[in-house]
Amino acid sequence: MNNMQGKFPSTRLRRNRMKEFSRRLVAENTLSVNDLILPLFVCEGNKVDDPINSMPGVSRYSIDKLLSEVEKAVKFNIPAIAIFPQIESGLKNSEGSLAVDENNLVCRSIKSIKKDFPNIGIVCDVALDPFTDHGHDGLVINDKIDNDKTLEVLEQQALVQANAGCDVIAPSDMMDGRVGRIRTALDSNNLADTLILSYAAKYASGFYGPFRDAIGSGSNLGKDGKLTYQMDPSNSDEAIREVGLDISEGADMVMVKPGMPYLDIISRIKSEFKVPTFAYQVSGEYSMIKESINKGWLNEKVVMESLLSFKRAGANGILTYFALEAAEKLKNE
Hints:
Blueprint lengths: L1 H6 L12 H7 L9 E7 L6 E3 L7 E3 L1 H13 L4 E6 L19 H12 L4 E6 L13 E2 L2 E2 L1 H18 L3 E4 L6 H11 L6 E8 L6 H7 L21 H12 L4 E5 L5 H11 L3 E5 L1 H12 L7 H12 L3 E4 L2 H10 L1
Parallel strand pairs: 1-3, 1-4, 1-12, 4-5, 5-8, 8-9, 9-10, 10-11, 11-12
Antiparallel strand pairs: 2-3, 6-7
C-alpha cells in the first residue's frame, strides 16, 4: 500500500474535471447576459440594412431597422447597447460641428430607441472622429490636435447626447482632462445622474480597421495617425495613471480598448482600483474570430471562450459584436 501511495499522487486536480456537475461547481468565472453590451452602427435613410464587408454578419442600419436590432437585445435581456454613427461625407467638416447638433443622427437614434424601449441602457461615444472630414477625434489646428479647444466641443457633444436621453456618456477621444470637463458640464445642467464610462486606456491599435470602415473614418489621419493621443501599445503603467486621473475627474466606470490583446491591462486596473471595468472586444478581434469560424478554421466555441477570458481578467462587462449570438447561447444553456 505504501508503494502504491508513493507511485500515485494524493492530489488529483482532474477529479474535479471528470463530470459536468463538478466542473460547474468549481468554475471560478462565469459569463451571463448581464455582462454584455451590444454595439450598433446607425446610418441615414429608411429600410437600410447595409452589410459591412470587413465585419461579417454586422450591418449599418437606418433608425427604423436599428429598432429591430434593439428589440432583439431587449428580448435577450441585454442590459445596454452602444450607438456608433456613419455620417454622410457631405455633412462632415474639419470642426466636426454636427457632433453638437441636437438633431444629429445619434440624438435622433437615442430618442427613437427610448420611445420604444425606455428601459434599455444607451451608451454613446463622445469623440469627433465620426463627424470630422479628417477622421481625428479632436480639432486639428496648425497640423496638431488641439487638446483644450477640443474639450470645448466634447463638452457640448456630451450635453446634446445626454439631453436626448443617453444614459452613459463614453468619452473615447483620449484628450487630457475631458472627463472632468464633461462631468462638470453634466452636473451644471441638471444631468448629474448621467453616467460616464471613460475609455481610460484606449490604445493606438491596429485592431480598429473594420470599425473605421463601418463609420467611414480614418482615411485622412496623416503619418502619425492617432499616436499623439491614443496610448502606446508598449505601455502598461501609463494606463494606470490614465485610469487614476479619470476616476479622480468623476468617471463612474472605465474601459480598456482593445480587449483580448490587453487582458493584462484589464487585470491590473481591476486589481489596483476595484472600479467597474469594461472591455471592448473591438472590430478587428471580432472579424478575425468570425471569419475564421466561417472558413472552418476555428470552432464556434471560441466565441464564448474569448468572452470568458475578459471575465477571468476581471472585467465587469464586455462591448462585443457577438452580444446577440452569445446571449442566445446563454439562454439555450
